[in-house]
Amino acid sequence: MAWVLLFLAGLLEIIWAYAMKQSHGFSRFLPTFVMTVAMAGSFGLLAVSMRSLPLGTAYMIWTGIGTIGAFAVGVWVLGEAITPQRLIAALLIVAGMVTMKLS
């Protein structure tokens, strides 16, 4: 169950990162509100998952899901550039997450 909660926490991290971008420096109410709720939920689920998962593993997987997800949203939703260097960096993050999960 801890892994499911950690995965959901990572998804909420993607949501709050995207909402933060859409808030335009916290000048728009709805994206700021969504960001705040998603952030609280993400931290809460992370904290619960850490009851049974090691700190380093949980934190790395959580940030990795958020990082890769935010990268994907940036590329597919916001039209950000996808360069070979950015793609390699994303693949290295995924490789690190897989290695951490397997260890």
From TrEMBL:
Gene3D superfamilies per record: 1.10.3730.20
GO molecular function: transmembrane transporter activity
InterPro entries recorded: EmrE-like, Small_drug/metabolite_transptr, Small_multidrug_res
Signal peptide coordinates: none
Alphabetically ordered keywords of this record: Cell membrane, Membrane, Transmembrane, Transmembrane helix, Transport
Localization per record: Cell membrane
Any single Gene Ontology cellular-component annotation: plasma membrane
Ranges annotated as spanning the membrane: 29-48, 60-79, 85-102
Highest taxon listed in the record's lineage: Bacteria
Principal location listed in the UniProt entry: membrane
GO biological process: xenobiotic detoxification by transmembrane export across the plasma membrane
Topology of the protein relative to the lipid bilayer: Multi-pass membrane protein
Pfam families attached to this UniProt entry: Multi_Drug_Res
Homology family: Belongs to the drug/metabolite transporter (DMT) superfamily. Small multidrug resistance (SMR) (TC 2.A.7.1) family. Gdx/SugE subfamily.
Name this protein carries in UniProt: Guanidinium exporter
